[in-house]
Design brief:
The protein is built from twelve helices and 14 strands. It has about 350 residues and is of the alpha/beta class. It folds into two domains: about 160 residues, Response regulator (Rossmann fold, 3-Layer(aba) Sandwich); about 150 residues, Response regulator (Rossmann fold, 3-Layer(aba) Sandwich), CATH 3.40.50.2300. A six-stranded parallel sheet has the order 2-1-3-4-5-13, sandwiched between helices. It has a four-stranded parallel sheet with strand order 7-6-8-9, with helices on both faces. A two-stranded antiparallel sheet has the order 10-14. Strand 4, helix 6 and strand 5 form a beta-alpha-beta unit. Helix 3 crosses helix 12 and helix 4 packs parallel to helix 5. The termini are far apart.
Length: about 350
């Protein structure tokens, strides 16, 4: 009798494990393969990732498999292959390399799995190559324009000073990533807002710092040693790099005084409005930033992913719930930026 009971117990355990395994197939939930391109990215890890996790936690019929692609597109490609093999219902992908968008789209298309790209945009041609791909992000130019308008306000108020008296706004630029559409647009449009307002500008130098705080600090250390007296403004494509600028200025005797700038000192601007940047504005060390609404980017990407998994979206859809989808061939939801100043 004991042997019979033991066999029955083993069979019951095996049934339980089988029922628990493969939940994405048996429990009726929509399963989404999600990645963050790099958990070391301040904005993605502190704003977008928790926004996605919190939003999914409020849903009973959706589960996600989220991974860190570690800043490596090859790792992401392998992660996508694994998700496809496991039978996820939809892919929600934060590209490492925007130029690799076609490769990712081709993988999804071959598997006939809907795909939502978010935060890093690929080309319009790549988006047009598959009916079941959409994008969630921002208007790349808008962040630079809003950042530039912050600086226009601060020049007009005297907060940004002509420190060497040459009648020109002398600036250094920290660019986020070579070839990244958002980085390129922010770099151009922030300065264009100043020139459109009638100000003469002079670029002292540009450094690609890959959105990274430490790389930005190292670049600014060099700039301060070379010609701190000529710098009016340091413009960063994101807050992570802007915080690196502040670290450099706080440890240097050039361009700043003690912990925070006084009248006539160098001014610093970022983009993203992460909490540490908002705190820096309150402390007087950061001139301004731009709210890159990562929370709503995460929510919109999830909403589109769910709708796509349910077959509720088509290549011609112009709305998905509360989200407007651009009808210009990009199949994109654009989440607006907001000015955050002193």
């Amino acid at each position: 009798m004991k042997k019979i009971l033991s066999v029955l117990a083993v069979l019951a355990l095996m049934f339980t494990l089988t029922a628990c395994g493969g939940a994405s197939e048996d429990d009726g939930k929509i399963t989404i393969g999600v990645n963050i391109y790099n958990y070391n990215d301040n904005f993605m890890n502190s704003v977008v990732k928790p926004a996605i996790e919190d939003y999914v936690a409020s849903m009973d019929d959706v589960e996600i498999k989220m991974v860190d692609s570690q800043g490596d597109q090859n790792i992401l490609n392998n992660q996508i292959d694994t998700w496809i093999d496991s039978g996820v219902d939809v892919l929600m992908i934060n590209l490492v390399d925007p130029t690799a968008g076609q490769t990712v789209i081709d993988k999804a298309k071959a598997a006939d799995i809907p795909l939502v790209l978010f935060n890093k945009e690929t080309t319009k041609d790549a988006m047009a190559s598959y009916d079941k791909v959409w994008y969630v992000g921002t208007n790349s130019a808008e962040s630079g324009i809003v950042q530039g308008l912050l600086m226009v306000d601060d020049v007009n108020s005297g907060y940004i000073a002509d420190r060497n008296g040459n009648g020109v706004i002398d600036y250094y630029m920290l660019q986020g990533e070579a070839g990244h559409p958002d980085a390129m647009a922010r770099t151009v449009e922030s300065v264009k807002a100043l020139t459109d307002a009638g100000f003469d500008v002079n670029e002292l130098g540009l450094q690609v710092a890959d959105w990274d705080t430490a790389k930005a600090k190292n670049a600014v250390d060099t700039w301060l040693d070379a010609n701190a007296a000529d710098i009016d403004v340091i413009i960063a494509n994101n807050d992570g790099m802007a915080l690196g600028v502040i670290q450099s200025l706080q440890t240097s005797s050039k361009g700043w005084n003690a912990e925070a700038p006084k009248e006539g000192d160098i001014r610093v601007y970022g983009v993203d409005a992460i909490q540490s940047a908002v705190d820096a504005i309150a402390a007087g060390t950061l001139g301004g930033t731009v709210l890159n609404d990562g929370e709503n980017q995460g929510k919109a990407a999830l909403d589109l992913s769910i709708a796509a998994a349910k077959g509720e979206l088509t290549k011609d859809s112009t709305m998905s719930g509360n989200w407007k989808i651009e009808a210009d061939g990009t199949k994109a939801v654009r989440v607006p930026y907001v000015k955050v100043g002193r």
